[in-house]
Automatic annotation (TrEMBL):
<dbReference type="InterPro" id="IPR029068">
    <property type="entry name" value="Glyas_Bleomycin-R_OHBP_Dase"/>
</dbReference>
<feature type="domain" description="Glyoxalase-like">
    <location>
        <begin position="113"/>
        <end position="211"/>
    </location>
</feature>
<comment type="similarity">
    <text>Belongs to the pterin-4-alpha-carbinolamine dehydratase family.</text>
</comment>
<dbReference type="Pfam" id="PF01329">
    <property type="entry name" value="Pterin_4a"/>
</dbReference>
<protein>
    <recommendedName>
        <fullName>Putative pterin-4-alpha-carbinolamine dehydratase</fullName>
        <ecNumber>4.2.1.96</ecNumber>
    </recommendedName>
</protein>
<dbReference type="InterPro" id="IPR036428">
    <property type="entry name" value="PCD_sf"/>
</dbReference>
<dbReference type="GO" id="GO:0006729">
    <property type="term" value="P:tetrahydrobiopterin biosynthetic process"/>
</dbReference>
<dbReference type="Pfam" id="PF18029">
    <property type="entry name" value="Glyoxalase_6"/>
</dbReference>
<dbReference type="InterPro" id="IPR041581">
    <property type="entry name" value="Glyoxalase_6"/>
</dbReference>
<dbReference type="GO" id="GO:0008124">
    <property type="term" value="F:4-alpha-hydroxytetrahydrobiopterin dehydratase activity"/>
</dbReference>
<dbReference type="InterPro" id="IPR001533">
    <property type="entry name" value="Pterin_deHydtase"/>
</dbReference>
<keyword id="KW-0456">Lyase</keyword>
Length: 216
């Protein structure tokens, strides 16, 4: 397999079995590392940058005091996950471990905005123009700088009255905590699509989905 070949779902699942710090999120694989100090986080950031330059493959890194939120995808493969991402993730984990950084799988997550529509093509360009996003091959919309939530269109002949909903991504290993917290707040949970996603409905009928990487 070439380093630039797009991984199948099964291949990605198998690779991530060997990378316990990493999880799949929409359009990337991601990890969070927590260091003892802000200075140590900067040192890890520098190490990640060095690995990225060596591989000529650059992840997205968000530095928040003593935490680094890291994600990687192959932009030259249309934003898909390739073997290059797996190799880079492995190097990043090695550097994090060497510096004593703690992996925080519980902090991995992402948010997407879903829009119900009977004709995605009729509105995609309008939303892209308003947000400054790019239309992806699958018809979804993405922020070119990967800072803002992605938009995807749920095609349906009977759009819900509330056409917008959030897809809140959590690692499957953490989803039970989120679901328990929602149930304590009286949120109704539809589990018919579990474990891929759970449809949550609040007291006023607003819906959102708790999504995981399982069964993708």
């Amino acid at each position: 397999m070439s380093d630039t070949d797009i991984l199948s779902n099964q291949q990605l699942h198998d690779y991530l079995e060997e990378l316990p710090h990493w999880r799949e999120i929409p359009g990337a694989i991601a990890a969070v590392f927590q260091t003892r100090t802000s200075a140590a986080a900067i040192e890890l950031f520098s190490d990640i940058a060095g690995a990225a330059e060596m591989d000529n493959h650059h992840p997205d890194v968000d530095w928040r005091y003593n935490r680094l939120f890291v994600s990687t995808a192959s932009h030259d493969a249309g934003g898909a996950i390739t073997a290059r991402d797996i190799a880079l993730a492995s190097k990043i984990s090695e550097r994090a471990e060497a510096l004593g950084a703690k992996p925080r799988v519980d902090l991995i997550g992402a948010v997407e905005i879903g829009i119900d529509t009977d004709d995605p093509a009729a509105i995609a360009a309008q939303w892209a123009a308003g947000l400054g996003y790019k239309v992806q091959e699958d018809g979804s919309l993405a922020d070119p700088d990967h800072r803002k939530p992605a938009i995807w269109f749920q095609q349906t002949a009977t759009p819900n009255e509330n056409r917008l909903h959030l897809d809140i991504w959590n690692p499957h290993s953490e989803s039970a905590k989120v679901l328990d917290a929602l149930k304590e707040q009286g949120v109704a949970i539809d589990e018919q699509y579990a474990p891929g996603f759970y449809v949550a409905t609040d007291r006023q009928g607003n819906r959102f989905c708790i999504c995981t990487e399982e069964d993708r």
